[in-house]
């Protein structure tokens, strides 16, 4: 019987033998078989998913089915671990994560990292109308404000701009302020401007008085 | 009257006549009545308070049902007359009514209500509740099936059951459950007719002279078993005068195969309608096949099965479900202990070989084969030859 590879003929022979045996058997004892008796009972209409009623009759009278007392959701909660986190820290963390960048609409621009260099640069940008007398900008108003989200980048010129829009290596500096100061060394424009203003400002004040006093004392014009 | 405690008081006051009756007829003594009131008040407050749930109503109703049963028992034991079941029952019904009004979506509460009405034999009330529940939940196939089953088994009303099924199939087009059960209902009807004819001696059956069964479903509608138990009794044990007294219509003695309804036209029409539904697939067709295959008493079974199989071959020719049904078709309705079985099994074996060649999923088909051979192999006095062939079929891959 454990033979796995039975040929067709063997199987047919087995079936034929079985048929003969069963025929002789059924002649001998003519009784209804168990299966035929079972197959004579008619199945009933039944649903795959039955709706259970809440009330179950027990020997102590009608009782509520215990399975209904706790809802499915609550049972699941009761049967598993629940990790509780401090809601305040959770909220704080969420807020921080939210505030770290300006959001996807702004390509996740990071929050400003205000270094002293950047602070100077921003101040310089506010006073950019002073740098070049030929260039005019819209007037800035209000208190100087540091932007909430910002990033510092470097413009890299294209190969076609070699002669037209390029800074030479010597002119390149780390920050805007350094570039402007380097320019000042060569031109001296700010110093000249300062002196000009100073001369106008001090014309009738302390220096004028000192000069006057010196003239009164020595009776002559001061050395300078 | 708006607060929960006001309402509770109103409902408690309504129960006073019942309590007075308990006291007068001495069914319960004063202490017991006091506890009853206390308990009832607790329930009322719980039910009427905010956030009450359907289970609370069910708990209350269960307690009232228990109380009613206790009252009936005491009346019987102490031989007290003049106490009826009406007040208690009306109270239980009103609790369920309030519950289902407050939680109309809770189907388990509806089912509790229905079950109580059924066990209390309040048929009129039961029908009203059933209509209300079905109206609120027309897409729940379980409710339609429950209704059809009750109508068929408790009312013995085939037309009523049929109409429930037909109405249900209009709503439940996405689940195969109801459709299969509808076809089953028609098969049950056919099987009952077949048995009735056999008992009345209208069919002279040459092959099955030995065992005759009678359809006895008088014990009615219970939810426990899935099979209608039919007591064995032999034709000779039936008193001949009993059979002779039954006047058999001349029309009925004619060949039943001439009428299309007795020829399985209705189940097949249901099957054909189901084919157009969205749920229909190879596995749904297989479920139909399995359901039909159980009804070995019905004469036109081979025709029905052939029709189902034809449809399956037409729609899903290489699906393992189709192949499995094709394999099983020859042996359906033949007892493994009868002499015809080996021959049929031979056909089945050749069909299995053929299917294995063309099926889409061999492993699935092998699994199905193992599943259907299991109960046959479990038989005690199975012929060893058949056993070997079945084992061979199980290993076929």
TrEMBL record, chain A:
Pfam families: Fcf2. Residues 98-193 form the Fcf2 pre-rRNA processing C-terminal domain. GO terms for molecular function: RNA binding. GO terms for cellular component: nucleolus. Its main location: nucleus. It is found in: Nucleus, Nucleolus. It comes from the Eukaryota. GO terms for biological process: RNA processing. Residues 18-42 are annotated as: Disordered. Keywords: Nucleus. This is Putative rRNA-processing protein fcf2. It comes from Mollisia scopiformis. The lineage of its organism: Eukaryota, Fungi, Dikarya, Ascomycota, Pezizomycotina.
TrEMBL record, chain B:
The keyword rRNA processing applies. Its main location: nucleus. GO terms for cellular component: Pwp2p-containing subcomplex of 90S preribosome; small-subunit processome. The keyword Cell membrane does not apply. Keywords: Nucleus, Repeat, rRNA processing. GO terms for biological process: maturation of SSU-rRNA from tricistronic rRNA transcript (SSU-rRNA, 5.8S rRNA, LSU-rRNA). Coiled coil: none annotated. It is found in: Nucleus, Nucleolus. Residues 12-86 form the U3 small nucleolar RNA-associated protein 6 N-terminal domain. One of its GO terms (molecular function) is snoRNA binding. Belongs to the UTP6 family. PANTHER family: HEPATOCELLULAR CARCINOMA-ASSOCIATED ANTIGEN 66 (PTHR23271), U3 SMALL NUCLEOLAR RNA-ASSOCIATED PROTEIN 6 HOMOLOG (PTHR23271:SF1). This is U3 small nucleolar RNA-associated protein 6 N-terminal domain-containing protein.
């Amino acid at each position: 019987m454990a033979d796995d590879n039975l040929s067709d003929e063997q199987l047919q022979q087995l079936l034929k033998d079985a048929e003969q045996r069963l025929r002789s058997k059924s002649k001998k004892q003519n009784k209804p078989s168990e299966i035929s008796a079972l197959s004579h009972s008619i199945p009933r209409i039944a649903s795959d998913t039955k709706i259970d009623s809440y009330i179950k009759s027990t020997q102590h009278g009608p009782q509520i089915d215990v399975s209904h007392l706790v809802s499915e959701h609550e049972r699941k909660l009761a049967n598993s671990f629940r990790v509780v986190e401090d809601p305040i820290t959770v909220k704080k963390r969420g807020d921080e994560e939210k505030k770290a960048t300006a959001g996807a609409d702004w390509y996740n621009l990071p929050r400003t990292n205000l270094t002293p260099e950047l602070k100077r640069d921003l101040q310089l940008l506010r006073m950019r109308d002073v740098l070049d007398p030929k260039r005019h900008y819209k007037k800035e108003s209000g208190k100087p404000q540091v932007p909430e989200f910002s990033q510092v980048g470097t413009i890299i010129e294209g190969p076609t701009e070699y002669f037209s829009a390029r800074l030479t290596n010597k002119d390149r500096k780390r920050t805007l302020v350094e570039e402007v100061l380097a320019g000042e060394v060569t031109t001296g424009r700010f110093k000249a401007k300062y002196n000009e203003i100073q001369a106008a400002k001090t014309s009738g004040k302390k220096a004028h008085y000192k000069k006057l006093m010196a003239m009164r004392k020595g009776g002559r014009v001061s050395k300078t | 009257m708006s607060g929960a405690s006001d309402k509770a008081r109103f409902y408690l006051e309504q129960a006073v006549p019942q309590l007075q009756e308990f006291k007068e007829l001495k069914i319960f003594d004063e202490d017991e009545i006091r506890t009853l009131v206390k308990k009832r008040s607790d329930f009322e407050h719980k039910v009427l308070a905010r956030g009450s749930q359907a289970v609370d109503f069910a708990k209350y109703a269960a307690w009232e049902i228990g109380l009613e049963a206790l009252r009936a028992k005491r009346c019987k034991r102490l031989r007290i007359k003049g106490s009826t079941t009406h007040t208690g029952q009306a109270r239980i019904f009103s609790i369920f009514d309030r519950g289902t009004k407050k939680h109309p979506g809770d189907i388990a509460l509806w089912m509790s209500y229905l079950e109580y009405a059924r066990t209390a034999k309040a048929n009129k009330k039961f029908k009203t509740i059933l209509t209300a529940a079905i109206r609120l939940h027309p897409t729940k196939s379980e409710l339609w099936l429950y209704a059809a089953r009750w109508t068929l088994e408790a009312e013995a009303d085939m037309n009523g059951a049929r109409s429930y099924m037909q109405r249900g199939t209009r709503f439940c087009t996405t689940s195969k459950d109801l459709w299969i059960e509808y076809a089953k209902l028609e098969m049950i009807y056919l099987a009952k007719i077949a048995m009735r004819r056999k008992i009345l001696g209208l069919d002279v059956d040459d092959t099955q002279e030995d065992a005759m069964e009678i359809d006895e479903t008088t014990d009615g509608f219970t939810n426990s078993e899935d099979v209608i138990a039919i007591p064995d009794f032999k034709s000779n044990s039936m008193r001949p005068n009993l059979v002779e007294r039954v006047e058999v219509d001349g029309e009925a003695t004619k060949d039943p195969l001439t009428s299309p309804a007795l020829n399985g036209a209705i189940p097949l029409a249901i099957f054909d309608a189901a084919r157009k539904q969205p749920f229909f697939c190879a596995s749904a067709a297989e479920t139909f096949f399995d359901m039909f295959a159980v009804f070995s008493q019905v004469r036109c079974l081979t025709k029905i099965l052939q029709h189902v199989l034809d449809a399956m071959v037409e729609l899903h020719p290489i699906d393992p479900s189709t192949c499995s049904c094709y394999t099983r078709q020859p042996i359906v309705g033949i007892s493994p202990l009868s002499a015809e079985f080996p021959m049929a099994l031979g056909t089945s074996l050749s069909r299995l070989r053929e299917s294995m060649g063309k099926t889409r999923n061999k492993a699935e088909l092998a699994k199905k084969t193992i599943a259907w051979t299991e109960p046959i192999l479990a038989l005690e006095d199975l012929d060893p030859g058949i056993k070997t062939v079945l084992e061979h079929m199980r290993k076929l891959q």
